[in-house]
Amino acid sequence: AVTPAFRPPERSDFTLTGRPGASVVILGGGIAGLTAAYELGKAGYRCTILEARHRVGGRNLTIRGGDVETDLDGRTQRAGFSDGVYFNAGPGRIAQWMVTMDYCRELGVPVEVFTNQNADAWIYNESAGMTEPVRYRTAKADVYGYVSELLAKATDQGALDAQLTAEDRTRLLAFLQSFGAIGGRTNGWAYTGTSRRGFAAYPGAGNDVGSPLGAPPALSDVFASNVGRYFSFEFGYDQAMLMFQPVGGMDQIPRALAKAVGTHRIRLDAEVTGVTDRGGAVEVTYRQGSRQAQLTADYCVATLPPHLMARVPHNLGTAVTAALADFPVTAAGKIGLEYRSRWWETDQRIYGGITETDLDLSHIWYPSHGFHGKRGLVVGYYNTGANARAYSGLTPEQRRERAVAQGVKIHGDKYRSELVTSYSHAWDRTRYIEGAWTSPRYGTAGYNLLLQPAGRVYFAGDWLSHEVAWQHGAFVAARSAVSSLHQRVMAG
Ligand SMILES: Cc1cc2nc3c(=O)[nH]c(=O)nc-3n(C[C@H](O)[C@H](O)[C@H](O)COP(=O)(O)OP(=O)(O)OC[C@H]3O[C@@H](n4cnc5c(N)ncnc54)[C@H](O)[C@@H]3O)c2cc1C
Ligand SMILES: CSCCC(=O)C(=O)O
């Protein structure tokens, strides 16, 4: 039998057929712009990409030693990372079903597992009064155990008889006993803790049974600590293991796309300043340094973030401007902390994965590659919204100090003493991006308007998809735009 009811969401062998040879100017060299150029190029179109930044990739940004970035506040950082150390400041993970994986395969970008969930990573909820972190495995054992105990008791006492048949009850109780590792009826279905909680010292040879963590805290204390707060993250269809990352940094994807497109077709440091639909062609003006230039093409694919495209003078109509301006934008930030030793592996036995906190740093990511290497890079914060803005308002030094002061609470002194260098990225303060991702108003006239070309101008970007904040969204939106452009050309 074939795998039931599953169709890859996007054909991996996407190709436009026919070679019409029209010219297309593409605004923005992020994933959407590069993909538009790549797919149109394969079909024989003559494409030119205008990208305002000094490199392609847009939000797909990997920072290495020597990279220099200046933000909207004029703060310049020069990354001091060692050779081989990299920091994915934007995207970091890919789900298996995403079309991003097909592009990695087609472009020859090798991928490796990205560890999105780790039983040995920590949970730390300061606001719940925790004074030390708890391992994920321990938190899960206790929460699953107590929830199972409660549900088993209610079931066995007949509280759910209106919902359950006698057979359902038997099956549910059997499931709960295994799921929560609870006692049976004679033990009152009690959760008393098992080896699932983990050990202070793991079992050894001969008669060494190790030092089990032992009895769990009281039920009420487990719920009060709120350690279950983040369990559902890994249930998400977009975040469930296995996840993947390109070997050597996420920017291997735009690099490979740019190579396939041909770097001679990409103009960097080229800021688009105007778009005019002339009826028979599109005229785009742009600025390269002090030079003003102009480019005319048969069609245009515009992939700037919508809130920035809204500010570019054009003659596409006020409804288009209003629709572009109607995308609420989220802030996000990350810091990369390079350490001279991989103490999280040697001392804490954490090989990849994520620690979850209620601190303003939100998440701490450990590297999913380079295990047992000499150095390594930890993502010391990955936060959004108000937490991201709190950090983006600080200088890079202040950001590092704040992140390290928080991280020490979980990891101890090495979090500070082993630190070599850091680089932080504030997406809301990044020129030509000004935000992390948007929340499209699906179903509105404005959103739907932008799915149609405005004259000879097509729009694309993750913001025109149902996978915002994922490269998948940028890929499929670009495919959609070039497909309708191509249909029109072939029909004409
Ligand atoms: C912190 C963070 C984490 C993320 N995590 C993930 C993840 O784990 N996995 C994943 O798949 N995705 C993730 N994403 C989302 C992913 O980065 C985006 O969905 C994708 O990169 C968007 O591509 P795009 O081409 O639509 O937009 P962009 O990358 O924003 O491209 C737009 C381009 O337009 C350029 N531009 C702007 N103004 C002008 C102008 N006037 N003239 C010329 N060019 C201009 C910009 O410089 C930019 O290059 C994350 C994003 C962020 C910010
Ligand atoms: C937290 S979901 C939005 C950003 C993203 O795609 C990611 O970090 O996985």
TrEMBL record:
One Pfam match, given by its short name, reads: Amino_oxidase
For biological process, the GO terms are: amino acid catabolic process
Name any one GO molecular function. Answer: L-amino-acid oxidase activity
- Tell me which cofactor or cofactors this protein depends on: FAD
Keyword Cell wall biogenesis/degradation assigned to the entry: answer is no
Its domain of life? Bacteria
InterPro entries to which the protein is assigned, alphabetical: Amino_oxidase, FAD/NAD-bd_sf, Flavin_amine_oxidase, Flavin_monoamine_oxidase, TAT_signal
Alphabetical UniProt keywords: Oxidoreductase, Signal
Identify the residues that bind substrate.
93, 381
Q: Which residues bind FAD?
A: 51-52, 90-93, 272
Ranges where the Amine oxidase domain occurs: 31-482
Kindly give the PANTHER family that the UniProt entry links to this protein.
AMINE OXIDASE, FLAVIN MONOAMINE OXIDASE
Name listed for the protein in its UniProt record: Monoamine oxidase
Q: Which organism is it from?
A: Micromonospora taraxaci
